[in-house]
Amino acid sequence: MKTILTVIGKDKPGIIAGVSQKLYALNINILDVSQTIMDDYFTMIMLLDLSKITVPFDEAKNTLMALGESLKVKVNVQREEIFDAMHRL
Amino acid sequence: METKQILETIKMIEEEKLDIRTITMGISLLDCIDSNGQKARDKIYAKITRLAKNLVKVGEEIAAEFGIPIINKRISVTPISLIAGASDDKDYVEFAKTLDAAAKAVGVNFIGGFSALVQKGYHKGDEILIRSIPQALAQTERVCSSVNVGSTQAGINMDAVKQMGQIIKQAAELTADNSSMACAKLVVFANAVEDNPFMAGAFHGVGEADCVINVGVSGPGVVKRALEKVKGQPFDVVAETIKKTAFKITRMGQLVGKEASERLGIEFGIVDLSLAPTPAIGDSVAHILEEMGLAMVGTHGTTAALALLNDAVKKGGVMACKHVGGLSGAFIPVSEDAGMINAVEHGALNLEKLEAMTCVCSVGLDMIAIPGDTPAETISAIIADEAAIGMINHKTTAVRIIPAVGLAVGDNIEFGGLLGHAPVMPVSKFSSFDFIQRGGHIPAPIHSFKN
């Protein structure tokens, strides 16, 4: 299952490190990363491969969202198809 | 995939309240017919709980994986008058209780189909069902009821119109201590559609497959936000903007419906393109109309604005999904829309203007509170007017009206949750009594010489 993870929030050291460490722990592979600063906000988008994930999707999502809270950024985890459906014919 | 597009989708969901309003499973009960009422009810309960047992779970899974809220999981069934009519029962309240129990067992919040289609006349089952509606809705929590009293092909059954005025009054009085809640679960239709996923008017038509998944999308907030970016521009731009936004919203409905249908192993029916408001801030159809340049919804220009909106939503949505159905347009329920409530409270919006608006939008006089002492004949006459608009204009119209027991104009009735609250609105003080007493049938209109 390919999934998009987005991280939006105030920039500070340790966001990418924190997120990628957690992904590694869950055995989630990062296929692609883009990161930029938009309107003063740190914005990172990762394309993830969840095929070898060690826990159920729900649990991984909640873990990552909780991590976002502790880093004071907003983390979203959504399947790639929702973006494809909306923006591609 | 571009960053901008990904962020746009996330923003639509998080800030602009884009959601899937409902996944509704339509279930045919035709194979549950039995001359023994109890046997029929046992079959109904067994079939609903078998087919819908995973509906809520699958809905929640999809919402979590795709990150889009799915607000309601619901069920619609074959009009019960057709099913119960074969039994010797003299009252169908027990059938409503069975539907309620099945809805609770599978965890859906509403089940629609305690319905009768009487546009041309009553059969035995219709007569008993309509008589049972007030008690059925008062004694159950999740059952929704609808009665189709007219159609373009059949005209208007004025005996049914007369009776529905009385039924609505009884339903209001039986649930007077609970905001006349029974009336919020009762819709009187003309040209009712068979695949509508939205409550309270959903039922599963006899022309439908045995079991289907229908999806209703929402997203007035997204349309409003898109129009904010084209302030002051001509209506061509407004229409284009709405079309593009409706396309995106509808794609979500198509995706979720397809996914739900695959996971449940049930045929995907239709996506209903309706813009459905909720009382939440930023989720109002009225505010879209106001964004077009009206100081307040209900003022002159509102009907034109709504006509444009309704049509552009359809045009944008039709290409975005495989099969379109249901009511597909803009809903204008008063109590469920913060902008509509505000307009009524400021005296900008009245029943007459709402009636005009129903000529160009998807449904009709919806979730409107009127004084509790309104005569049944006045309610019937309001229904007759709406049915006439539907009959002549080949469109669905509906009346979901609440005579607020003990309340007068200026008071407020609170329904809670998605049903919101409604200011009690004035009705004409002149009587329609003699008009309604005539009964009989208004013939179907001529389908030529259109002007």
Element-level helix/strand string of chain B: HEHHEHHEHEEHHEEHHEHHHHEHEEEHE
Low-confidence stretches of chain A: none
Nearest-integer average pLDDT of chain B = 94
Question: In what range is the share of β-strand residues of chain A?
Answer: 35-45%
Overall average pLDDT of chain A: 91
Key features of this structure:
heterodimer, A: 89 residues, alpha+beta, four-stranded antiparallel beta sheet, 4 strands, 39% strand, B: 451 residues, alpha/beta, eleven-stranded mixed beta sheet, two-stranded antiparallel sheet, 16 helices, globular
Describe it for me?
The complex is a heterodimer of chains A (89) and B (451). Chain A is an alpha+beta fold and 89 residues long. Helix content of chain A is 36%, strand content 39%. Chain A contains 3 helices and 4 strands, in the order βαββαβα. Chain A has helices spanning 15-25, 57-70, 81-87; strands at 2-10, 29-38, 41-49, 73-79. In chain A, a hairpin with a 2-residue loop joins β2 (29-38) and β3 (41-49). In chain A, 29% of the residues are buried. Chain B is of the alpha/beta class and 451 residues long. In chain B, the strands form 2 sheets. In chain B, strands 1, 2, 3, 4, 5, 6, 7, 8, 9, 10 and 13 form an 11-stranded mixed sheet that branches. A two-stranded antiparallel ribbon of chain B has the order 11-12. In chain B, β4 and β5 form a beta hairpin. The N and C termini of chain B lie far apart (50 Å). Classes of the chains: A alpha+beta (89), B alpha/beta (451). Chains A and B meet through β1, β2, β3, α2 and β4 of A and α1, α3 and α10 of B.
What's the helix and strand layout?
The complex is a heterodimer of chains A (89) and B (451).
Chain A: E1 2-10, H1 15-25, E2 29-38, E3 41-49, H2 57-70, E4 73-79, H3 81-87
Antiparallel strand pairs in A: 1-3, 1-4, 2-3
Helix pairs in contact in A: 1-2
Chain B: H1 3-14, E1 20-27, H2 37-51, H3 55-66, E2 70-77, H4 80-84, H5 93-106, E3 110-117, H6 124-139, E4 143-151, E5 155-157, H7 158-174, H8 181-184, E6 186-190, E7 211-217, H9 220-228, H10 235-264, E8 267-272, H11 285-291, H12 302-318, H13 338-345, H14 351-358, E9 365-371, H15 376-393, E10 397-404, E11 412-414, E12 421-423, H16 433-437, E13 441-442
Parallel strand pairs in B: 1-2, 2-3, 3-4, 4-6, 7-8, 9-10
Antiparallel strand pairs in B: 1-7, 4-5, 5-13, 6-10, 11-12
